[in-house]
Amino acid sequence: MTVRPQSTKTETDTAPAGVLSRVHEWVTTVDHKRLGIMYIMAGLLFFMIGGIEAGVIRYQLSYPANPAIDPVTFNQMFTMHGTTMVFLVGMPVLLGFGNYLVPLMIGTRDMAFPRLNSWGFWVFLFGGLLLYYSFIGSSGLYGDAGAPDVGWFAYSPLTSRAFSRGNSVDYWTLGILVSGFGSMATGINLVVTILCLRCRGMKLMRMPIMVWSMLITGFLVIVALPVLTGVQVMLLFDRFLGAHFFDPQLEGSVLLWQHLFWFFGHPEVYILILPAFGFISEIVPVFSRKVIFGYNMMVIALLWIAFQSLGVWAHHMFAVGLPPSLNAFFAASTLLIAVPTGIKIFNWLGTIWGGRIIYATPMLFALGFVGLFVIGGLTGIMLATVPFDWDVSDSYFVVGHFHYVLFGGTLFAIFGAIYYWFPKMTGRMLSERLGRWHFWMLFVGMNLTFGPMHVSGILGMPRRIYTYAPERGLDIWNQMTTVGYAIQFIGILFFIWNVIHSLRKGRRAGSDPWDAWTLEWATSSPPPAWNYHPLPVVKSRRPLWDAKHPEDPDSEYE
Questions:
Q1: 248 DSSP 8-state letter
Q2: Domains annotated on the chain, with CATH
């Protein structure tokens, strides 16, 4: 008889193997839920990095003639901050929610192309890391080493070899180019999944508004991002092959970059805000205890916004000397796009009106979103007026405007969505007490940060300057802005602690903690790998409500 030696492994010996196994599962996964969570986590990580860069900018501008950092470092900070927030925070977090929620909301088991979905995430992440590698990998021939310093818009001729002789611009171009491929893959996947994999009975006009917003966002990604890809390839050809697309001395055009970049750039604003509209359209009805007011008009408004967003790009170029007829056309189209946006505002207010409002943290962020986005929209209408735009173009008024739209809009909607769907993703509730602290600190800090920017802009403070003279009267407004940033930073710390604490000790959520009515709440929290077995059958726009209240005469409400 052979006696086998007893194993001498202990728990500490097996623990690393268990950790490595779990890491391997996440790295190799094609599950849309895990990929959605990884998109969101990566986006929030880049958000913290971009927030630190914003802090450096605000510290430098907190008082006149501040010698804290030099102009080159300042330019690198605002370039990386803008690029990070637009390409590495807004898009991945929003597409991550789409990845996680769309299959659950339409009653299917996964995205149409799971492997393409996984490829899209890793390509996006590689592009982001490639961009940040510029801090250590970029070396210039003339001392211009470091991160790109040409702004997130990278206007020509600043990006030409004559003015950017190192390779920092190449890192910027390649990083955004590569991450854009990942975003396009996700956009294609969303469109195909929504159009082809809906469960039985899930007609287009029964889909949640959130799914509509992701479908339209997917189409915008497919249309707009290839234009950005093309213009970046043209820039690489200029820099490496002497193509001269943007060199006016050899029959190129510096305005060609602006036209092509902003043809992407303004649909990009709606790529960032349309999913936010979807989040708010799911949160507001649940916490008002009413169905969404004017469902059909909400869908029409989303389609209208997406279509018209492709025809307003030159309002970013009113100051470059376009013919008056073009200025008039783009001013009119910009004013007109406010109509469908206004429809959505009134629909949300109509949903809230007369409802039994529950002021939970997701609803607080939704209400904050509506108020802040209205302010950003109104200043956008002001900027659509060509004479006013000429006066404040490239001033801090514009900075305040787009931060009210993208920070007060998109970011507040993202936080509302995190508080709303965190229980579904993790099975635990976030703390309401910490959530309220987070909301109020962010709300007060956001207004204190970006509200004074409108005043300093009207007083003549230009964008992209690293310092200013003390006698210009801009001190107090910049100091208010810096204090507002500090308050926001504290609010984000409340959020981070809330997530960490809730993951460890948060109250168990159950499958439907909000008493909602869309399909994702019909599964366990977190959902099983296969989502549904068997696949659900839908008879109305409120399938979960029908299951919970079959006696309700309105349960078949279309």
A1: G
A2: 29-547 (1.20.210.10)
